[in-house]
Amino acid sequence: MRNNNLKIVKGLSSISISVVLTFLVMTGFSQSIPEKKLYLGQTPPGNSPEIFSLDVNPGFFAAERIAISNDGGAIYYSQIEGYYPNRGESIRKYTCSAGIWTGPVILFEGFAAPALSITGDTMYTERNFETFFSVRKGSDWSKPKRILIRSDSAHYYQVTGSRNFYLSSKPKKGAGLSDWCKVIVNDNDTTVLSLGKPLNNAGENLDFFISKDESYMIVTNRPGLGISYRNRDGSWTTPIDLGAKIDFGLGSWGPWVTNDHKYLFYSTGTKTDYSDVHIYWVRIDCIIDSLKRLSTASSKGL
Q1: What does the mean pLDDT of the chain come to?
Q2: For residue 15, is pLDDT > 70?
Q3: 282 - beta bridge partners?
Q4: Which of 135, 164, 265, 278 has the most Cβ atoms closer than 10 angstroms to its Cβ?
Q5: In the prediction, which pLDDT does 77 show?
């Protein structure tokens, strides 16, 4: 997703804050689906990316980040007709019951890029770089409501296990046209703090994924994906490219990593008209570990 007109996030309503914080208690990951039935029953990839097959209407494609419920029994993804400006966006949903997958069905029209809270009871999504949330009751989701009420530039909003909020926006003191930021909420006021250099550069720092323990971030690293690790002082390392095997397309975006840190999902394609864009997945845990050692050695000058 692209935007050259990002503005600073200035506030949350007290009602929105209350709703958001209600659903931020860490819960365990439960596994209730037979392993061979997980991920729509598709064979998990190794260290080479594979297309994660998702149903779309003719003339549409699946892209942006996806979301998978804690028990693995629901998968949410975006169907898009065209980019820049985006059109035909909708969030679709697959559901697994008794080992049988059904769907997809349209959950929300006009929204894209779903993300789930720690508990899985709140979904964060966006439209025109505005952040919305929906609350699940049973199998039903409420109509999305805007969270960052004074912002038209809150992108890829995420919440971690420590109840910290992150997004891409335009802070007062930023490194680039837009920055990856931490959101500080105080009563009715919201402060957006850039995570600074070398994580951010002078360009647009847009799509990203932050791990729930905040130990690493996977970011759009122009044009591919990179990984940055958090230092002990809270700063972030220079992103290291994930490599040509993963970044084989003209650009990679929409990263999301499973709760067990095993698989990276992301969007890419090789044609400028987006006619071959797909969501891919790849085994990522070994890459996360190996690049962390490389990053640590580099920071020590070894």
Answers
A1: 86
A2: no
A3: 264
A4: 265
A5: 98
pLDDT digits (tens, 9 = 90+) for 130-142: 999 999 998 899 9
Nearest to 18 by CA among 191, 187, 189, 146: 187
Q: Which domains does the chain have, with CATH numbers?
A: 14-299 (2.120.10)
Q: Tokens at residue 106, please?
A: 């349209």
Q: Report the alpha-carbon distance of residue 186 to residue 193 in Å, rounded.
A: 13
Residue 295 has what DSSP assignment? H
Q: Does 19 score more than 50 pLDDT?
A: no
Instruction: Determine contact, residues 146/129, Cβ cutoff 8 Å.
Output: no
CA distance 214 to 165: 11
Q: Which of 117, 129, 115, 119 is nearest to 254 (CA)?
A: 115
Task: Tell me the sheet residues that pair with 7.
Answer: none
**With contact defined as beta carbons under 8 Å apart, do 42 and 55 qualify?**
no
Is residue 252 a contact partner of residue 266, using CB atoms and an 8 Å limit? yes
Please name the residues in contact with 19: beta carbons below 8 A apart, sequence gap of 6 or more.
122, 133, 135
| Distance (Å, whole) CA 163 – CA 279 | 28
Lateral strand order in the sheet of 189-194: 155-159, 165-169, 179-186, 189-194
Predicted confidence at residue 7, as pLDDT, reads: 32
Average pLDDT of the residues in 225-235: 95
Asked if residue 59 lies in contact with residue 81, where contact means CB atoms within 8 angstroms, the answer is: yes
Burial of 110 (0-12, 13-18, 19+ CB in 10 A): middle
* Residue 256 main-chain phi, psi, to 5 deg: -155, 140
